[in-house]
Amino acid sequence: MKKVLGAIAALAVSFAASAQSYPSKPIRFVVPFAPGGTSEIVARSVAQELTTQLGQSVYVENKAGGAGTIAMGDVKNSPADGYTIVLGHVGTLAVNPYAMKSHPYDVDKDFIPVALLARVPNVFVVNADAVKVKDLKEFIALAKAKPGSLNYGSAGNGSSGHLAFEYLKMVSGADIQHVPYKGTGPMLQDLLGGRIESSNAGAPALLPQIKSGKLRAIAVGSDKRIPALPDVGTVAESGYPGFETSQWYGVMVKAGTPPEIVKRLNEEINKALRSSQVTQRYATDNAVAEIGTPEQFGALIAKEQARWRDVVRKANITIE
User: Is 159 among the domain residues?
Assistant: First the structure.
């Protein structure tokens, strides 16, 4: 027994020492998406502040493909030492486990939540010329009056926009046809051209076209109205209480990472989120910083998994 206790004590001292010296080399921040999107903006904003705070480079590495599974698999196979972290997202953490027939990682066993970074509201929009409705109530009424006659475009099967619209259909009972695209860009081009009639996507991608009058915002998916669209109500305000859909991003590490390092990362990330550089950049993209504990982030993941598991199953959504 003394030997066992001695080994445990030695291990605790070793963990404490590693946390005190951490980080002693650059940290790789893996982003499961291509450059240029909101995910990279969030990651790079925080990485820049962490580099200053920690005195070591925190560099972003984009690793797109496989609906995020390539990046998550990379981190799963990396050492559990805190020097490889990954940007978790609603898709990789709460949708893929239920929508993919072959899933190469277990969110709850292979990774540890570190910190939630940001929420980015989704916005429901229509082509202003093609669909003459003022708000979500009128849109749903039109869809119910002409079942199957309206359509919506998304960035692809299993994308946040696809799930948001299927969630709306589920709670409203409206029949609206899905048109999947390979990315937000092609979808937005057809939406502006009137080839599709409506969509749901992150606010940063849609706000310029909303402000130009080409698209009309009919509802926001977040639980509160957003500053950029103060006159646009939430879906919950439109008669569907409890409805919420937003894109969220947070940091995960491989399971087995010493708890002292997870704690240090959480503290430094929260400090970065309070910095003026991050808050100003987030404000530009209508992202909302989220400061909290690893346990709070874990609770959000569990809540979102329950929400999207039901949507995926009822809408029969699959990601190849």
Answer: yes
Say if residues 110 and 76 touch (Cβ distance below 8 Å): yes
The DSSP-derived string for 251-313 is EEEETT--HHHHHHHHHHHHHHHHSHHHHHHHHHTT-EE----HHHHHHHHHHHHHHHHHHHH
Note down the domain range covering 62: 24-120+247-315
**Number of domains composing the chain:** 2
Q: Which of 179, 203, 238 is the last residue of a domain?
A: 238
Please tell me whether residues 105 and 131 are part of one structural domain.
no
| SS3 at position 179 | strand
Coil, helix or strand for 13?
helix
What's the pLDDT band for 16 if we cut at 50, 70, 90? low
> Tens digits of per-residue pLDDT, 51-71?
999 999 999 999 988 888 899
| 225 shares a domain with 126 | yes
Alpha carbons 297 and 291: distance in angstroms, whole number: 9
Q: pLDDT by residue (tens digit) across 295-307?
A: 999 999 999 999 8
Report whether the peptide linkage leading into residue 104 is cis, meaning its omega lies within 30 degrees of zero.
no
In whole angstroms, give the CA distance from residue 234 to residue 73: 36
CA 265 to mean position of chain CA atoms = 20
Give the CATH number of the domain where residue 141 resides.
3.40.190.10
Bridge partner list, 116: 250
Are 275 and 305 contained in the same domain? yes
Q: Is 3 a domain residue?
A: no
Q: Can you read off the two tokens belonging to residue 268?
A: 């430094």
